[in-house]
Design goal:
The chain is α/β, with parallel strands linked by helices and about 425 residues long. It contains 15 helices and 13 strands.
């Protein structure tokens, strides 16, 4: 069986990481898997892209800019929401590539920002190739948004989109794209895969998708790569004080409002004011773009970790910490929680999206009430203040990942979906 995975980027973003891990996991199980990307960032032989010519690079760039321009025009010349939505009006043709022609199944992942247009997806469906589409956010089941928040318009037909500001209405850009998606999806059977039950439930309610074509399979992770390490040695190598208990906060872009950094800062302030004896031993590690800018705002002793894409270095960051905090306001199935737990870190996060499916309250971490900084602080205390409890949480966190997210477990589930797609093409 030959699988062609398709994603916009090879390494940047959670979907890219997940698609890359699935490629490796499938190959380990003897399935021939190739990852096709627009933006290639390594020399891996099973990761391919379009020709690296100047013409290709310009075409990809123009596809991205033309889509942004169309959103800008459709939003009444207002910049609001321009980078919060995608309309997939332009893209690249993958159907003529040899990797496409040789594949038994086309497995789409995150294909926005000029990678594939709805017209190109329609062409893929018309080719007769079985299509599986892993949803890393809500975009495949809505018109234009990646996170619908509390909006349910996509259940019947998107309109009056909150991301379009003054240009929203019954026949706005979201309504137009919703109708285009309907026509596109009617060209063939797509087996949609949600990474979490939370997203799967949203997809089943969408007027765009047949409920029976929605499956739930988590992203895989290698427990050989993500695992606990020698804490003292790693902290020394990172030039960190060895005798601290480290609270890790991280995001690709730490200033992203959806990552909830303000709630984390407030939780740190509350921790500093609490009358406990251990708080002087606690410190914060911040990893991601913009980490250094956050240090002054964090009331506890804090250290920044350079932004990297090298997985071995990222593993060291987790191994140097004691717990991971994710105050995200919108999430599907965060890779960082999975990675942390695989490294034996209990996690603290809000009850939102797919997070409750990963953090089992007071078993693998602590689930705080949504947007409640005080409860976030309570969760951090709960994990760090009792040594025996901490050891049990750490053990159970890694055991949970092994049971639900290990490569072999996830690959077996995808094999069944691939066979089903081939039978129903």
């Amino acid at each position: 069986m030959r699988i062609l995975l398709v994603n916009t980027s090879e390494k940047i973003g959670g979907a890219a990481v997940a698609a890359g891990r699935l490629r490796v996991a499938l190959s380990t199980e003897g399935i021939k898997a190739t990852l096709l990307v627009r933006d290639k960032q390594s020399d891996a032989l099973t990761v391919t892209t379009f020709t690296e010519s100047l013409v290709h690079r310009m075409r990809a760039r123009w596809a991205f800019l033309l889509e942004r321009l169309a959103i800008f025009l459709g939003n009444g010349l207002n910049r609001q929401g321009v980078f919060q939505v995608d309309i997939a009006n332009v893209g690249l043709d993958i159907t003529q590539l040899p990797e496409f022609k040789q594949a038994d199944v086309i497995h789409l992942h995150w294909i926005n920002q000029g990678m594939l247009s709805l017209g190109q997806i329609k062409k893929i469906l018309r080719s007769g190739k079985p299509v599986v589409w892993t949803m890393h956010d809500m975009w495949p089941c809505t018109a234009i948004c990646h996170h619908a928040v509390d909006c349910t318009a996509f259940h019947q037909g998107c309109h009056d989109c909150m991301y379009l500001g003054a240009a929203k209405g019954k026949h706005d850009l979201s309504a137009q794209v919703y109708r285009r998606k309907q026509k596109c999806y009617q060209e063939g059977n797509i087996h949609f895969v949600a990474c979490s039950e939370w997203l799967g439930n949203h997809a089943r309610q969408s007027g765009l998708i047949t409920p029976g074509h929605v499956h739930v399979i988590p992203n895989p992770i290698s427990l050989d790569n993500f695992k606990p390490g020698d804490v003292d040695q790693i902290r020394a190598s990172l030039h960190l004080p060895i005798d601290k208990r480290y609270i890790l906060f991280g995001a690709v872009k730490t200033s992203d409002e959806n990552k909830g950094v303000h709630y984390f800062i407030e939780a740190c302030r509350l921790l500093k004011e609490m009358p406990q004896s251990q708080k002087d031993q606690w410190a914060v590690l911040v990893m991601g773009r913009g980490a250094e800018e956050l240090l002054e705002a964090i009331p506890l002793e804090a250290y920044s970790l350079p932004f990297v894409t090298d997985s071995a270095k990222i593993v060291q960051y987790y191994q140097a910490a004691d717990l991971f905090v994710t105050p995200s306001l919108q999430e599907n199935l965060p890779n960082m929680i999975m990675e942390s737990m695989a490294c034996g870190l209990p996690c603290v996060g809000f009850k939102v999206g797919g997070i409750p499916e990963m953090i089992r309250h007071q078993v693998t971490g602590y689930l705080a009430e949504y947007k409640d900084a005080a409860d976030l602080a309570s969760g951090i205390r709960y994990i760090l203040e009792d040594t025996q409890r901490y050891r049990q949480l750490s053990h159970d966190a890694r055991a949970f990942v092994r049971k639900h997210y290990s490569e072999s477990v996830v690959t077996q589930q995808y094999e069944r979906i691939y066979q089903l797609a081939i039978q129903n093409k």
